Each structure stands twice: as structure tokens, then as C-alpha cells.
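Practice problem: predict the structure.
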Amino acid sequence: MSQNGVTAPMGYKAAGVHCGVKKQGKKDLALIYSEVEASAAGVFTRNKVKAAPVLLTLKNIAGGRAQAIVANSGNANACTGEVGMRDALRMAEVAAAELKLAPGMVVVASTGVIGVRLPIGEIEAGIRRAVGLLSRDGSRDAAEAILTTDTRTKEVVVDLKLGSSRVRIGGMAKGSGMIHPNMATMLSFLTTDAAIDPGILQEALRASVEKSFNMVTVDGDTSTNDMVVILANGLAGNPRITGPGRDFMEFQEALDEVTVQLARMIAGDGEGATKFVEVRVLGAPTAADARLAARAIASSNLVKTAVFGEDPNWGRIIAAAGYSGAEFDWEKVDIFIGNVKTAEGGAAVPFNEEEARNELRKHDIVLTIDLKSGDQTATAWTCDLTYDYVKINASYRS
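Answer:
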């Protein structure tokens, strides 16, 4: 699998630079550019408080077209009033002027501290420098430039065939804290050289987000800036996807692979995390019930602290499923920690505590709950809740 992220599909370049938002010379401005106009789609935070770049991007991609993405880290440009909107627009205008585009063809994103005005002069200079550095090898720099408390970059590329054409979907994401379902994601930018209409692209993205980024939780907080945006420039030359059919299904499967991999990376890089946790719900009456239960278990601070403490307290798992809103008969439920069955028919069964603790000592942990109430399944991803999470967020602005 290629590792050059958003520049793996044909016709994309990227760059990442330090412009002065962050300290210690860390990269803090990313630029992604398609050589031709592209279909565009996005899914955005459901927080009522939306940052200026989110509001601007919602407007800019309403017509389903875009050609560039500019994003800064270290400052969210959220709750900054009219000046914040002007600064977001200025980011689009400068990128557009340098790339010879209309400002409405630029997606704008920000992430970082809320309530502080952007150093717009430094950002403008950074955009101009990034345009000069755009290259097919720039994906890793761009992926680094959108990070905040993340400990590593997150990039994925997936290949597929549509007709006789080779198509690629590339993606990057940032996310470590303020991560919770029912929004979009932290920040994720996806590119593809597939030829696909904007409307059906939006449908594919929304469905993919529901299976991936909306099944990740780190701390129960939904950010003001979350967005996932995809550009599709058509340079692969495949028969254009205009609606449902075989090609659309194959594109959807590949897109899901990209977003699920990125979602898993986000969960594994949760702030202060020492363990990656996959929650599997089986036997739900509906897909919605399965997702409700999986999200509740993955979101439970009591479950997450039990994982950190390597305590096989399965009661916290069934309790979270019980308050999730999912329909099921709790007296049928089986629960597994790794391969160790800890409950059957909603009640305790004898199990070896040390074997269960050994499962929780692993870095990758699977918690399974079989509701025995249907045939629908769902998977959610999270991490443990540690002392370091508190330390990181107690000094986030310093």
C-alpha cells in the first residue's frame, strides 16, 4: 500500500509549512491542490457552535465543486466574531489568488485553541510559501501540518479498479482529543481521481462517515471545527459514476476502507492513550440499535478506565449498553473480553480473572457483546482513559 496519502491519486499536490501559529517551528499550515476542478463533498460538526472556517466551507462547497484545501493548526478560529469570518475568507482569497482560482473553490479549515484570533499576516505568508512548495511528495508534510496533540501523522491510500481504469483514494486525518460520534470527524481530507458526480459523492461520504468517524470516541467532546471533505477530480478516466450501480458500490467499499483505517488510527492515537479498544456489538435487532450500543460502550468513561486499569469489570459494558437506547433483552446477553467469556444470559459465568486481565494487558483489545436479539452488528473504536489525558488537557493552551 502506498504511503503518499492525498497525493497518491492523479493530479494532486500538497505542502506543509511552519508559518508561526505554533511554537518551536512545528508545521502548522497545510495546502492540498488539484490540478483540475473537482467534485466536492463534506460532512461537518453537529455542534451548534461552528467555527468560521466551517461556515465558510459549508458555503463554498454548496455547489459541489472545489479545487484546493487550506488548513491551519494551533488556532481554531472559532468564537472570533466577524473578524474570524474575515480571516477565514482571507485564507481562501490568498490561496485562490496564488493558485489562480476563484475564492469559492477553496476549502478552509482550522484546528486548535478556541477564542483566539488567527495571526492572519503570518498565515497569509505561509500560504504563499506553501504554494511554492506544492509537490507530489508533499502529503506527509501536509499531514504533519494539521496535527495538534496527535503523536503521529495519519495517512491512507486504497487502490481499486473501475472498469479498465485504476482509481486511487487517498486520505489524511488529525484527531486525538475532542473526539466523539454524531458530527463528522476531527479534520480529515480525502482525495480521489475517480470521476463521480457531486451528489452521489456526497451520498458515499455521508454513508462512509457513519460507519467510520462517527464510530470513534476518545473523550465525549464534539469540536466546533470538525469536518471531513473529499475532492474527486476525475483524472482516472473511469466511466463517470452518476448513481447507484456496481461501480458506485465498489467505490463505496474503497472509501469505507480509507475512512475506517483513518478512524482506527485516530482512536489509537487518543490523548494519553496506552491501549486501542475495538467494541463489537452482535445480535442487535437493527443496525441503529447496534450502533447505539457500540457507541455507548466505547464512550463510557467507566469502561475506558477499567481498560486502563486492566480490570475485567464486564458489568460496566452491559450497563453502558443498557442506557444506550438500543432495544434488546438484557437477560440474553453474552459478553467477552478478548476471548474470555465473562457473562452469559445477562449474568456472570465463572471465568479466569488472570486470563481476562491478560487480554486487557494487550495493546489492541476487543470487547464483544452479543445482544442475542437480532442479526445486526456494529463496531466502534476508542482508547483507554489515562492520567496523561488529564495532564494533556489541563495545559492545552500553554
